[in-house]
Structures are given as C-alpha cells and as structure tokens.
Design a protein that fits this description.
alpha/beta; binds magnesium ion; about 260 residues; 6 strands
C-alpha cells in the first residue's frame, strides 16, 4: 500500500475557516462596512446594508465594488476603518487547532482576502501565528493598486478570481496538484479546484461538486483528511520516482 501523503503544502483561508463565523466578528464587520458606506461615501443609512450585499455579490467586496464604480477609496483607509475597530477579543485562543497545526509537517500558508494587519491580529488571538510560514493577503494580490490614477483603472483582485488563485500559487511556490486548500466559501473552493488544488470546504457537513472534502470545523481535519499525516520519508521517494518518470515522458514527447 502506498502510504505517502498526497500533500506537500496546505493553504488555509482565515476568516470563517480557522475560526468560526459564530464568533460575531463577521456581524461587526458588516456593521462597520455599512457605517463606512454612510460616513465616508455618503450613502443613505437605509440603503447601506443592501448596497453592501450588492457590492459583495457583484465585485467580491465593498472595497472592490466602490472602486469599480468610481469611488476613490484608499484600501488602507478602508481596512483600518472596517477591520481596525473589530472586537478582536471575540476570537479566543484555540489550543486544539494549534496542536493539530503543529503536528502537520507540510508547509502551511494563509491565503485571505483580508489585509495583513487583520490577518496578523486574528492569528495572534487564535495563538497560531508561528504555525504558518507565509501570509498571502489583500496586499499580496493588490500590490499595484496605489499606482492607479483613477479608482476604476486597476481592479481589486480577490478570491475567487482566477488571477487571485494564480497569484497565490505563484507566491506560495506550490504544486497545486499536491496542495490542499481549505476555505469556507463555495466559490473559492470552485476556483481552487479549477486551478488544480485539492479542496476542503469548511463549515459544512456536505461537499459541493468542486470540494474533495467537507468539514464542519477545521479541527475535524484529523478525522476527515488523515492522508495529511501519511509518512514523510516514503513521500520523498515517491517525488524522486515521479520526477524521473516525468523527465522520461518529457524527453519522449519532444522526440516524438
Ligand atoms: Mg473565509
């Protein structure tokens, strides 16, 4: 029996994946975005919630939507307003999650649409910052944004766009076919599958078409994806074998 792990790397979404959507953080975030739409952009209070929902559906986030329709909203100002005042104390340390992450020998990477400051604060509250070698976040995908002369000139890049997925794979330097990707968003999981990642839908007990696995909570990983912990040394042998086989195939193909 081949007992080597099929995964070299594991990419984790952050919000509603590594901590539960029931913390109340998500509710506070919605309220802060509504306030931003009213206070900073001048929309009527009665329209703010519906607009937030519409912008999220159409553009992936309120920031992306506001810029796309011509509002010159600075990403850092937006993030410090909507994330900066979140009640982070609602996120509690998760020693069980920490223990599981510490037992995963593969590379572990965060991939979030949120900004870096938010990611660092949330990971710090959970007590798992040192479990990850890299954070791929809003700034990674949108390093170009400040160069836009008009807000709609350079679109905001976020999951689930293919561009975002490809930036993450490039930044993380992973082979998508040997990478496990966890996210709570069905569209993100579909995008992950489209770029070749092996996918885990978090927060649900049933899989969608593009999900290889489904977990109610992230700590169920141990029971649902035991292949993560298959032996390392056999994996190394397998990589060597697979590489030489691939070289052979490539040579043959060129010669043919
Ligand atoms: Mg999420």
């Amino acid at each position: 029996m081949d007992s080597s792990s099929p995964f070299d790397s594991i990419i984790f979404d952050l919000d509603d994946t590594l901590y539960s959507s029931k913390t109340g953080i998500g509710q506070s975030l919605k309220k802060n975005i509504d306030d931003f739409l009213v206070e900073k952009c001048g929309f009527p209070v009665s329209k703010a919630s519906a607009l937030r929902v519409e912008l999220f559906k159409t553009y992936g986030s309120s920031l992306a939507g506001l810029r796309a329709i011509g509002y010159d909203v600075d990403a850092d100002d937006y993030h410090s307003y909507v994330h900066g005042r979140l009640p982070y104390d609602l996120i509690k340390p998760d020693p069980q999650l920490r223990s599981i992450l510490r037992r995963i020998n593969q590379r572990k990477i965060i991939f979030t649409n949120s900004d870096r400051i938010h990611a660092m604060k949330a990971l710090d509250r959970l007590g798992i910052t040192d479990c990850f070698e890299q954070i791929i976040c809003f700034e990674t995908m949108n390093f170009n944004l400040s160069k836009a002369t008009r807000p709609e000139e350079i679109p905001v890049i976020l999951k689930p766009s293919m561009e975002a997925m490809n930036i993450a794979i490039e930044a993380a330097q992973v082979d998508p076919y040997r990478t496990l990707f966890l996210d709570d968003n069905v569209k993100n999981i579909a995008a992950g599958k489209a770029v070749g990642l092996q996918t885990v839908l978090v927060g649900r007990s049933t899989k969608t078409k593009e999900a290889d696995y489904a977990l109610e909570i992230v700590t169920d990983l141990v029971q649902v994806v035991p292949a993560i912990w298959f032996k390392e040394e056999e994996k190394d042998q397998k990589i060597t074998r697979t590489r030489s086989e691939m070289d052979f195939v490539a040579t043959t193909a060129v010669g043919a």
